[in-house]
């Protein structure tokens, strides 16, 4: 693989060889749509745009789907409509934050940096703001459920989709009863669930510790066989159908008449009719240069993937009191979910993975914890738990799509549908006011 300036020149020659049109002032267009970022958001957006007849180039500075798309739990969490910024989280957060290896932590040295984000998070948890975010999430998840099935079928990847349901577990009646308000809100939104006692839990998932006295089963919960394999397969379909994936770093985007100029790190440039910023946690400076200073932070998520035979897992298990899940993938049993709000520069603290794995062993006594692979990824997170989806201030030819937090895979197909509509001038299926880049102005 070429690198540096030679790679940029070679890539640009490749684009030029496939150029489709010119701008009004005679400059050659390299693609209808250039997408910054080849994670699951960028890949699904490219696929959806290609279905609309758009020529697409994905630009990725690293490997395809090697960020947050690589190590997530593989869940399509359509029932996860409750924003993280909620009145309930404020009751749990102090206890969690006191434990440096707990399910939610902020390194002390990072507190001055993240303080404005935390203040916005607090504001978003107030009842009126929470209600707005909740309604937006419900609409987004309804769209996501429909569009995910459609996209997977269109890509011929139905064999990767699983419909095993998910089981949420509680260690006391008090913890269970504290969850009922959220479950009632989900039921109102059309999400089916079934509450269980200890015997019902054991029937669904043998091998759990008897400490879990209550549970809630979500029968409509779906997952993918492996999130990385899924992203790679979608990218493969994209290339088979004429899409292009180029390894390069985008340093900036500027309006260029009836096009957008993307400036690459090697000094070369790319022209596209439209551009999408889907760079995940690295999107903030690109948006700032286009006039949108957004409170994007990183949920540094940790997990351990054990060999496939580590436990006979029937469906995803969620332990809300401890902030982690256990999921079954073709690559193994994945234990993870702990969140560290620590930015992009701090080295990983894999004690967090180890602590979560130790808890999983207590909860699943037969779990074989040997042979695991630890991982840390950067989830792009907004303080109100909603992604940024909308046009840039500097030009309506650039559209943002980032900040999905731990719901990137879940909402990827819905986001792709919305982006394809925005780029092609089609009315969007949901109201985007709650997702607007200007909501923090």
UniProtKB/TrEMBL annotation:
InterPro entries: FAD-dep_OxRdtase, FAD/NAD-bd_sf. It holds the Pfam family DAO. The keyword Oxidoreductase applies. One of its GO terms (molecular function) is oxidoreductase activity. It comes from the Bacteria. Keywords: Oxidoreductase. Residues 32-422 form the FAD dependent oxidoreductase domain. SUPFAM superfamilies: FAD-linked reductases, C-terminal domain, FAD/NAD(P)-binding domain. GO terms for cellular component: cytoplasm. This is FAD dependent oxidoreductase, D-amino acid dehydrogenase. It comes from Aurantimonas manganoxydans (strain ATCC BAA-1229 / DSM 21871 / SI85-9A1).
